[in-house]
Specification:
mainly alpha, 4 helices
Length: about 110
């Protein structure tokens, strides 16, 4: 079900999340539950970290068990990473639906 069609707290959280994303990123694009922070919104590295820090603070969430490196690459490469290139582990997707679910539960995990 589209979060915008839900009632009560979940629908309110979806609207609050949309407002937050638009304010943080200054984007006037259509956002959907499956909008990916990295692929669709272009967040990575320090920008993604700052966005998530602000998200957690704005909605007073706990960050228990969330591993940033599972979802995003660091900014820049070290020389050793170039010299000893290994296939990088594919990153997990982090979507707006995941963020809304974190708001619903009070924890980004």
């Amino acid at each position: 079900m589209d979060p915008a069609q839900k009632t009560g707290t979940q629908s309110e959280n979806w609207e609050r999340l949309l407002g937050f994303v638009h304010a943080e990123l200054g984007q006037n694009t259509h956002l959907w539950p499956d909008t990916d922070l990295r692929e669709d919104l272009g967040l990575w590295g320090d920008d993604a970290y700052e966005f998530l820090e602000n998200f957690i603070a704005e909605f007073n969430l706990e960050a228990g068990g969330f591993v940033f490196s599972d979802y995003f690459e660091r900014e820049g490469l070290k020389i050793s990473e170039l010299l000893f290139w290994k296939k990088r582990k594919e990153k997990k997707r982090l979507t707006l639906l995941h963020l809304q679910q974190a708001m619903d539960k009070g924890i980004l995990a």
